[in-house]
Amino acid sequence: MNVLADLPLSPSASPPGFDLARARRAEALGSRLPPLLVAARRVAATVAQGVHGRRRVGQGDSFWQFRPYVSGDPVNRIDWRQSARSGREPPEGWLIRQTEWDAAQTVYLWRDGSASMGWRSRAAASDKRDRASLLLLALASLLLRGGERVAVIRPGARPVSGRFGLNRVLEELDQARDDDDLPPRFPLPRHAQVVLFGDFLSPLERIQETIGRMSAVPVTGYLLQVLDPAETTLPYDGRIRFQGLQGERETLIPRVENVRDTYRDRLKRQQEGLAAICAAAGFGFGVHRTDHAPETALLSLYTALGVR
Fold first, then answer.
1. Phi/psi zone of residue 153: left (φ > 0), alpha (ψ -120 to 50 degrees), beta?
2. In this structure, is residue 4 part of a structural domain?
3. From CA 168, how far away is CA 144, in angstroms rounded?
4. How far is 248 from 103, CA to CA, in rounded Å?
5. Per the domain annotation, does 67 fall within a domain?
6. One domain, residues 243 and 128
7. Residue 26: C-alpha distances to residues 21, 36, 180 (Å)
8. 151 and 82 in one domain?
9. Quick one: 1 exposed, middle or buried, by C-beta within 10 A (0-12, 13-18, 19+)?
10. Whether residue 286 sits in one domain with residue 183
């Protein structure tokens, strides 16, 4: 039984300090997250069949590959036995032995929970918030399977690892604030990785300040813009009233088809700006539509993280 649904709507019937609207939002979120967790594990399991871990060059004991010597490489990293077998004159025949990075890394995850992320059109499979949550949980599942540590970017959050870590990520996501359209200030460690999920329709200046602050640590990462299909095409015709979701005024457009090209051009410029900000900071950038398969976005994202 839905306990909150039985409570009177009159403010005088609620206990002191009880925020009924916030409680209803929390209950709605809580009812969605467990199914999202199941779906995330399914998506992660599908993608896991096509990947083999995040192999990276680093200080480990497991051999990865040989590569040609490059001027400036330390001489003590040359594999002399393998170089002799190459049959080429030095230094062209010198080979560097590379090993895998086998120390667990921490990947910090954040999902935009603001009001605009709760919107969906009829053509969408889910709203943007649920899709971003699904992708975040599925990525966390993949990373935890690979022995990595993950953490949600929110005050007080700590990295988790192991088979039960995904449940903790779910709890952290449930407790994250739902009114921030950009990540909060958070003490990120040097050389960590971050992955950000959101619609990123905020002014580019604010986004640049946030990404610039992270890259100065320095950290690297990936920004995935999650959009509803209607936001990418503006498929409406005729007289349409658009309602703001985050305090914006309503806008009545007599003939939407007359502004469609202008709208698409503005979205294109926003995405080009996001791509430029990410490139300057050493971040990857991608766009995902909620009517597309989440497995495709997750595989691209996981692969991009693995080559950094």
1. beta
2. no
3. 12
4. 47
5. yes
6. yes
7. 9, 15, 16
8. no
9. exposed
10. yes
Distance, CA of 90 to CA of 81 (rounded, Å): 13
* Average pLDDT of span 205-228: 95
Give residue-wise pLDDT tens across range 10-60. 223 333 444 444 445 444 544 555 677 778 888 888 877 655 555 554 555
- Single residue among 100, 129, 159 that ends a domain in this structure: 100
How long, in residues, is the chain?
308
Q: Give pLDDT tens digits for 235-281.
A: 999 999 998 877 778 889 999 999 999 999 999 999 999 999 999 99
Domain housing 177: 20-54+103-306
Q: Any idea what the Cα angle at residue 243 is, between residues 240 and 248, rounded to 5°?
A: 135
pLDDT in tens, 150-205: 999 998 888 998 878 898 998 888 887 767 899 999 999 888 899 999 999 999 99
